[in-house]
Write a structure and sequence with these properties.
The complex is a heterodimer of chains A (870) and B (242).
Chain A: H1 3-14, H2 18-51, H3 53-57, E1 61-65, H4 72-80, E2 86-98, E3 105-113, E4 124-126, H5 131-134, E5 139-142, H6 144-149, E6 157-160, E7 163-173, E8 187-190, H7 192-197, E9 208-214, H8 221-234, E10 242-245, H9 251-299, H10 304-340, H11 355-379, H12 400-422, H13 425-455, H14 462-473, H15 479-509, E11 518-523, H16 528-537, E12 541-556, E13 559-560, H17 561-570, H18 580-590, H19 599-605, E14 608-612, E15 620-625, E16 636-640, H20 641-647, E17 654-659, E18 662-674, E19 685-687, E20 698-704, H21 710-720, E21 725-728, H22 729-768, H23 770-782, H24 787-824, H25 833-854, H26 856-860, H27 863-868
Parallel strand pairs in A: 3-8, 5-7, 14-19, 16-18
Antiparallel strand pairs in A: 1-9, 1-10, 2-3, 2-6, 2-9, 4-7, 5-8, 6-7, 11-20, 11-21, 12-13, 12-14, 12-17, 12-20, 15-18, 16-19, 17-18
Helix pairs in contact in A: 1-10, 2-9, 2-10, 2-11, 2-22, 4-8, 9-11, 9-12, 9-15, 9-22, 10-11, 11-12, 12-13, 13-14, 13-15, 13-24, 14-24, 15-22, 15-24, 22-25, 24-25
Chain B: E1 6-19, E2 22-35, E3 39-43, H1 50-57, E4 65-70, E5 73-74, H2 80-90, E6 91-94, H3 106-117, H4 122-132, H5 148-160, E7 166-170, H6 178-195, E8 198-202, H7 206-210, E9 214-219, E10 222-228, H8 237-241
Parallel strand pairs in B: 3-8, 3-9, 6-7, 7-8
Antiparallel strand pairs in B: 1-2, 1-4, 4-5, 9-10
Classes of the chains: A alpha+beta (870), B alpha/beta (242).
């Protein structure tokens, strides 16, 4: 046949199956939408960060450190290109700001900027004037949130670090800060002269120092990298600062979106695969109804290959149309998402139009449709033309070899798509294995139920139940496929929900009893007695305070750190234990500044916070050595287990600290584990009293306060001691939980695509048997059943389908959540029966609703019509 | 018109079906020859093997043993593709239950075999044939919108559209009332005469069989009687009606 003949045949063949085509399209479009949304979002963020790197850093290159930047920096910058490199200095830290009446106060993130900031991007202010004009030595520019929370207005006064400032304006948008950046408090801009008037610097505050560098006009990424190399090579204490060029802006954001993108990419694929099950069901029914016509076509001289081609081309065309529709829906969601969830997505980086993501979605959509229908289509070769004479001539059953090949085709198709979505062969393989196990379990359960329904005594439950069971038990009812599809959706959505619920519950539940409510940072030793007194007078409980000494490692087991670093540079060791989950946990525990690529190096060079005392905090458990150490050993040190492993030291080894220029040698006498869930003050390094008693230090304190008392106490302490930073743990925890809840919501929203696909599959399964159902309804009505009776019979069938899917799906979800929580996250697990019950009820209700909607036409049929057309 | 050269020949044609553990022989050692332009009726009770024989003659089914040749080509060993091409060129069908393609209009049903053959102007040819069966104005109707008699007339038009050498008809009037059956029959015989088509007709109706050149009777899968009418009935009923 020619192409034109094919085209005509395809058009004529498909035009009277609109309902089926709509279902087919629904199954594919839902999954494609999910995939395009995820792929688009992650490309969007990654591209946005790359293309807007300069804006996101407000510079071509940034040098950052936790200590003041060395003066050599200027020399290197000058040697790069004398006179044409501009530098602007930025300092950031948190501090409490107080309203003029001293009644209300607030933790804020302060940013001290020198002239030139920002080199790139828009700093939008109200009034719209340059920042340097608004900022003088006695003015500040603040986030609008501060005005609202302290009940102030522009030009009011504000007290920071013991000095008074006038609010000269508000900041509406900051180029190098994203909408989703986690912050401890709202922004305050301050001039360097203004900072000098406060008493905040030089008293142990943790300041982030940054030099923004602007290269001459027209400089490229290579130019920036050349300067990066110069800064790295020329500086002896290279690890005292880090350099990033604009190509590496927002590395955390990009990494996490990459990771989330890969994970959610698989979630999207799952909904597409669930849709694939539906496509197979719809196609099976569709092709079964075309058997007679296919036999006629064969009679008229169409070859088997031509027949297969006609239907394959239809599958391709329908899935192409469905995928395009899905891609457009995904793009629409991509456009809507930042509007719905501004806290979850960096609004200013999102560009919904992502052709690459759309192409990916379309290809996967067509791929799934073809993979799931090809085995059926190939079966069309075997439709015997003699069927025109003998209606009962069934297509010849394909042998085990053909069935095995079909299974292999589906499996390898799924595997390939999973690997491509995860961008990782191993993850794709695990996904496929997990999916196969879940499908097998669901299939087994569905088959068992279908069999059991056949064996049950049907007289027991009355005529409706009997019929409902009979429907479920009927061979070829398609029940198994529907149960597998819905079950997969239930498994996924409920598992993510359980994990998120457990996480937030544990965060919330483990806080109240005896966890501290408030942290006091940067307290000078001589300030502590007075602060302690204020706290006691205002009824604070569980007051704990510890000294904190800042230091660096000078040597490990007598080997100087510089020499260890040199060895590593020549011969980089593999990470001591390659366990990504663990590394990730460690990341989360130790804060974001720990790069994962070379943990040991960073362990050696980072600034240490070390405490000392004769009693370990609550929740610390010695697992090796003793605490306190036996009296003969001076300068004893206790290390946290993972930290000791990262350093590669154990009991008996020595470490030498550089405490602001003074070397102090300590001996490791014990290793301990820490229960971080106490939320108390904890240190990786805990020394015994003696060697550090006279080192420069600050104090940290934790207390338990009534939330209502906090503003008063905070204002009282900060007014007296402006350098003290007060952090209310509950507020921070609430922010963390809000982020977790947002992420959970996002994942579940995507999971909802999977459920939607499952429901469409059930609808498709029911609609596929429309003709037979209509005949049955006609017969049942003829023998005297009312419409209500028939409705009940059908509802029972769908309820049973939903019930089995729910039971198996929820069991699988619980297992998955249990494994994730207890095995991966070391958290506790407890089943939530009432919620399981609720989820089962919802699933069953959805199944009944979808089934009844899909059988509406059959239910409405009049007996005479159906029987006449027999 | 009758040149007495064979167009279909069978030798020892046998077809067995498996039913559980038993094997049923539906057609047993049938050897016959049909000449070009001949009109042959196949008669017999239900289950005597009539439809099975027709299916084997048309290459719709494969014999368990024995051979069939159409226009000199042995078909029992042909691939499915070759058989399909042979049917496309040389064999037309009319069935008891019409078997029109449900998604195609009447006109498209008739056009299809012409299109498959790649002959020119399929639409025009189909329209002409529909005109001849008296359905000139109904081409855009779907099969469900036509009566049984009309559907069978469309099927007739479709069968003659590619101008086949052989027309296989399986009780073409079996599902129609007397009047409609007669109309369809008249049209079929007229078309056959005009096209010079060989006709193999499976029927229960002795009166219809009387019109044929030869009657082959089957009983339990064997040919029990082959009656030739030395002089084809003349005039045909259609002509007599004019």
């Amino acid at each position: 046949m020619t192409l034109a003949q094919y085209a005509r045949l395809i058009v004529r063949e498909s035009r009277r199956s609109r309902g089926r085509i709509a279902l087919f399209m629904g199954c594919i479009a839902v999954g494609v939408a999910a995939i395009v949304l995820v792929a688009g979002l992650s490309t969007s963020v990654s591209d946005g960060v790359r293309s807007e790197g300069r804006r996101l850093m407000a510079a071509d290159l940034v040098v950052e450190s936790r200590q003041p930047l060395p003066p050599e920096l200027d020399t290197i910058l000058a040697s790069y290109s004398p006179g044409s490199v501009e530098r602007a200095d930025v300092r950031e830290f948190v501090s409490v700001i107080v309203a003029p009446d001293a009644q209300s106060s607030l933790l804020a993130e302060l940013k001290v900027v020198g002239s030139g900031y920002p080199f790139y991007g828009d700093l939008r202010l109200d009034p719209p004037q340059p920042l340097q004009q608004l900022l003088t030595s006695d003015t500040v520019v603040v986030a609008p949130e501060i005005l609202a929370r302290l009940n102030l207005k522009a030009s009011d006064a504000l007290r920071i670090g013991g000095a008074d400032f006038r609010i000269a304006g508000t900041v509406i948008a900051e180029p190098d800060k994203l909408s989703i950046t986690f912050t401890l408090g709202p922004r305050v801009f301050l001039s360097p002269d203004g900072l000098a008037r406060t008493q905040l610097i030089g008293k142990g505050s943790r300041v982030e120092y940054r030099a923004l560098v602007k290269l001459p006009q027209g400089s490229t990424a290579e130019d920036a990298q050349r300067l990066e190399r110069m800064l790295g090579a020329g500086e002896p204490a290279e690890d005292s600062y880090r350099v990033r060029t604009f190509t590496e802006a927002q590395p955390q954001l990009r990494r996490s979106f990459d990771r989330v993108g890969r994970y959610l990419g698989l979630v999207g694929l799952l909904s597409l695969l669930v849709g694939g099950v539906g496509v197979a069901q719809v196609a099976r029914a569709w092709l079964a109804s075309r058997m007679d016509d296919i036999a006629i076509l064969r009679c008229l001289g169409a070859t088997p290959r031509e027949v297969v081609n006609v239907y394959l081309a239809q599958v391709l065309l329908i899935s192409l149309a469905a995928s395009v529709v899905g891609a457009l829906i995904g793009t629409l969601f991509h456009w809507l998402l930042p509007r719905w969830m501004p806290g979850l997505v960096p609004v200013d980086l999102v560009h919904p139009w992502q052709p690459e993501a759309m192409v990916r979605g379309v290809f996967l959509g067509i791929g799934v449709a073809v993979v799931f229908t090809l085995p059926l289509l190939i079966g069309l070769r075997r439709v015997p033309p003699v069927r025109v004479l003998r209606r009962d001539a069934e297509p010849l059953r394909s042998g085990w070899l053909a069935q095995g090949l079909a299974a292999l085709l589906i499996l390898s198709g799924v595997w390939g798509m999973a690997a491509s979505q995860a961008d990782d062969l191993e993850h794709g393989t695990w996904f496929t294995i997990g999916l196969v196990i879940a499908v097998l379990l669901l299939w087994l359960a569905a088959t068992l139920v279908s069999r059991a329904a056949r064996l049950l005594p049907r007289d027991a439950g009355g005529v409706r139940l009997r019929h409902g069971l009979a429907h479920l038990a009927r061979p070829g009812a398609g029940t198994v496929g529907a149960i597998v599809a819905i079950g997969l959706g239930v498994t996924f959505v409920f598992a993510t929900w359980l994990v998120e619920r457990h996480l937030t519950d544990q965060l919330a539940a483990e806080l109240p009893a005896d966890a501290p409510s408030t942290f006091f940072l940067d307290v000078q030793p001589d300030q502590w007695p007075r602060i302690e007194q204020i706290l006691k007078e205002s009824g604070a409980e569980d007051i704990v305070s510890r000294p904190m000494v800042n230091a660096r490692f000078a040597a490990i087991r007598g080997v100087p750190v510089a020499q260890l670093l040199e060895q590593q540079r020549k011969n980089p060791p593999p990470p001591p234990r390659h366990d990504p989950q663990r590394a990730e946990r460690d990341d989360n525990r130790r804060g974001p500044e720990r790069p994962r690529s070379r943990p040991r190096r960073w362990t050696l060079t980072r600034e240490l916070r070390i405490t000392y005392g004769d009693q370990l905090p609550r929740g610390n458990r010695i697992i090796a050595g003793t605490f306190p150490a036996s009296p003969g050993i001076p300068n004893a040190l206790s290390l946290e287990e993972d930290y000791a492993n990262d350093l590669g030291v154990t009991v008996g080894d020595t470490v030498t600290l550089d405490v602001q220029g003074v070397p102090v040698e300590l001996t490791v006498t014990s290793i301990r584990t820490i229960d971080w869930r106490t939320m108390g003050m904890n240190f990786f390094l805990f020394a015994e009293p003696g060697p550090l008693d006279n080192a420069p230090q600050v104090r940290l304190a934790t207390v338990r306060l009534e939330t209502a008392d906090l503003p008063r106490i905070q204002a009282a302490i900060v007014s007296a001691f402006p350098n003290v930073t007060v952090i209310h743990v509950r507020e921070v925890m609430e922010k963390v939980m809000a982020v977790l809840r947002n992420i959970g919501l996002g994942v579940r929203a995507l999971g909802a695509f999977t459920i939607a696909a499952g429901i469409i599959v059930l609808g498709g399964t029911v609609a596929a048997t429309q003709a037979r159902r209509a005949r049955e309804v006609a017969l049942l009505k003829t023998i005297g059943m009312t419409r209500r009776d028939v409705l009940a019979v059908f509802a029972i069938e769908y309820a049973l389908t939903g019930f089995v899917a729910a039971v198996v799906g929820l069991a699988a979800a619980s297992l998955l959540a249990w494994a994730t929580l207890t095995q991966l996250m070391d958290l506790d697990w407890s089943p939530k029966w009432s919620e399981l019950l609720l989820a089962a009820t919802i699933t069953i209700a959805l199944a009944i609703a979808a089934g009844l909607v899909a059988s509406a036409r059959a239910l409405a049929a009049r007996p005479a019509e159906v029987l006449r057309s027999e | 018109m009758d040149d007495y050269t064979p167009i279909i020949q069978t030798s020892g044609l046998t077809r067995r079906f498996k039913s559980g553990t038993k094997t049923i022989t539906v057609l047993n050692d049938v050897s016959l020859t049909v000449n070009r332009g001949e009109f042959v009726s196949i008669m017999g009770k239900s289950g005597s093997g009539k439809s099975t024989l027709l299916a084997l003659l048309a290459g719709l089914d494969r014999p368990s043993s024995g051979g069939v040749s159409i226009d000199g080509e042995a078909i029992e060993r042909m691939s499915e593709d070759k058989l399909a091409l042979l049917r496309r060129k040389k064999v037309g069908f009319v069935f008891q239950s019409f078997h029109l393609l449900g998604n195609f209009t009447a006109l498209e049903n008739v056009m299809l075999p012409v299109e498959l053959l790649g002959q020119p102007k399929p639409r025009q040819r189909a329209a002409e044939l529909l005109e001849r069966v008296g359905l000139g104005g109904r081409g855009h109707h779907y099969p469900t919108q036509l009566s049984g008699g009309e559907q069978q007339r469309v099927a007739l038009a479709r069968a003659f559209a590619p101008d086949p050498a052989v027309l296989m008809a399986d009780e073409p009037t079996g599902n129609l009332d007397g009047e409609n059956g007669q109309i369809v029959l008249d049209m079929m015989l007229t078309l056959r005469r005009d096209h010079g088509t060989t006709l193999i007709l499976v029927t229960h109706d002795p009166a219809l069989a009387e019109l044929s050149d030869r009657v082959i009777r089957l009983r339990d899968g064997r040919v029990v009687e082959a009656v030739s009418h030395p002089h084809p009935p003349d005039p045909t009923p259609a002509e007599a009606a004019r």
